[in-house]
Amino acid sequence: MGTIKEFIKKHLPESAVGILRRMNSGGEFWDSRVTSLLCYPLNMFRSLPHRDYRSSGTISENNRIFDYRRQLLPNHVLAEQENGISDAAAAAGKTGLSIGYPAWNLLYYSLFCSPSDKTREFIAVETGTNLGYSTIAMAQALKDMNVRACLHTVDVDGNNIEAAKKNVEKAGLSKYVKFHRSDAILFLKEFVKENEYMDFVFIDDKHEYSQIKKEFSIIYPRVLACAGKVYFDNTSRGGVCHALRFIRKAYPGNMIEFNNCSWGPPGNAIWQP
Length: 273
Prior knowledge:
- By secondary structure, this protein is an alpha/beta fold.
- It is about 50% helix and about 15% strand.
- It has a seven-stranded mixed beta sheet with strand order 3-2-1-4-5-7-6, sandwiched between helices.
- Helix 9 (about 185-195) packs parallel to helix 10.
- About 45% of the residues are buried.
């Protein structure tokens, strides 16, 4: 692990020091976790076969991976939920509509490596809490960044919110998360009135063209204000795919897509100004 530690010290933000300390005292779990975060996402995009995305958005369109070491996940609750799971149908019964592995690690790593201004609070937002498993990946990243931070997550379904609260509490991350029950667009309209910037936004509620387009238009000025990131799920086809085409044409900035992860339909994408 010497070379991995040297790479982290040279290339990652100061928040990586916290993980290095735990690697020194935490043994194989932390060593393998960081190895995965650094190396696996790069390798998987080269190795997985091309998929045909023309069918409807169902669990049969699956680029989740189930044959992997669960200790590579960023939090023990995610690992516990994945134990014994070997297909997308079984995974949906445990973790709902969450993006799964390896997308959980991609989400974690994308947030963890975001620049942070330690003179102010780091603000992350998630639309579409569902059962809170992607929330856990994001909150764990905020904890590991070792900065003053808060993740605001919103869902219109009160049952989802209550289930997510329990899962986040079990993960030991409640202090990093604020839950909101609301329509995402109504929530974002109020949120941008009260906050001048948004460092990281995960849009993952209604995967419809008009919804994604509207949410992005609301958050755009606040993300631009701090050179933040916007993360999308289910990007390979359907409403999100069409919305991303519009965003590329209508807004400046850069976008990178990761088609070989997530499910129903697969694909994640990250946009930065």
